[in-house]
Amino acid sequence: MKDPDLAVHDRADHPHPAHDHTARDLRIVVGRLARRIRQIYATVDDTTGLTFTELTVLSRLDRKGPSTSAALAGSEQVTPQAIGTALGTLAQRGLVARAPDPADRRRVVTEITEAGLQALGDRTHAVTARITHVLGDTVNEEERRRLAEALPLLELLADRL
Q1: Measured distance CA(71)–CA(73) in Å, rounded
Q2: What are 99-140's pLDDT values in tens digits?
Q3: Pick from 156, 159, 158, 130: which is nearest to 27 by CA?
Q4: What distance in Å separates the CA atoms of residue 97 and residue 111, rounded to the nearest whole number?
Q5: CA angle, corner 13, sides to 7 and 15, nearest 5?
Q6: Phi, psi dihedrals of residue 10, rounded to the nearest 5°
Q7: How many Cα atoms within 13 Å fall on the side-chain side of residue 69?
Q8: Strand pairing class (108-112; 67-68)
Q9: Distance between CA atoms of 112 and 96, rounded to whole angstroms?
Q10: What are phi and psi of 131, to 5 degrees?
Q11: Would you say 117 and 125 are in contact if contact means Cβ atoms under 8 Å apart?
C-alpha cells in the first residue's frame, strides 16, 4: 500500500495530462491577450507618458480602492522597490495621493486622484472599446455569459500565480 503523503507528492510531480494541457493552453491564450492589450495601449495617443506598471497601479487603485504599497506589490507580484518607484512618480505628478492610514498611522495608504482617473481613463477606454467591439463581432450571448462566469476564476489564478 502506498503512503498517502507519497501519493499526494506523486500527483504534484505528475499532474493529470488534461490539467497539463489546460495549463499550457491557458498560458498561451493569456499571453496572447496580454501582448495584444499592451499593443493597444501602445497605439493610444498618450500624452501622459505613463509606464505599464504605473498604469497597472492606477487601474488597481481605481478598481479596488486605496491600498498600501505592500498590498499593491503583493497583488501585482512586483518588488516593493518597483511599486515604490511607480508610486513616487505618480505622486509627483498628482495622479495618486498618499496619507497615513487612519487605522495604523505608521502605514501609508495611496489612493487614485481625479487627475489619475483622467490619465487612466483615456488608455483604458481605448482597450475596453476594442475588446467590446471584438466581443460584439465574435461571440454570442451564451459565449459572453460563459466568459463572464470565468472571470472570477481567472482573477483567482492571477492572484495565486
Answers
A1: 5
A2: 998 888 888 999 999 999 988 887 778 788 889 999 999 999
A3: 158
A4: 5
A5: 90
A6: -60, -40
A7: 21
A8: antiparallel
A9: 4
A10: -65, -45
A11: no
pLDDT at 1 over 60: no
Q: Which amino acid is at 149?
A: E
Cell, residue 38:
499592451
2-12 pLDDT, tens digit per residue, is: 444 444 444 45
CA 137, CA 110: separation in Å to the nearest integer? 39
Residue with cell 493569456: 30
Q: What cell does 81 get?
A: 522597490
Cα–Cα distance between 81 and 73 in angstroms, integer? 9
What ranges in 93-140 are assigned the alpha helix state H?
114-138
| Residue 131: all three cell numbers together | 475588446
Cα-Cα end-to-end distance for the chain: 34
Q: What is the pLDDT of residues 71-82, one digit of tens each?
A: 999 888 889 899
Residue 3 confidence (pLDDT): 43
Residues in a beta bridge with 108: 100
Nearest 10 degrees: CA dihedral of 37, 39, 41, 42? 170
Q: Could you tell me the CA-to-CA distances from 27 to 21, 40, 89, 154 in Å, in that order?
A: 10, 20, 32, 11
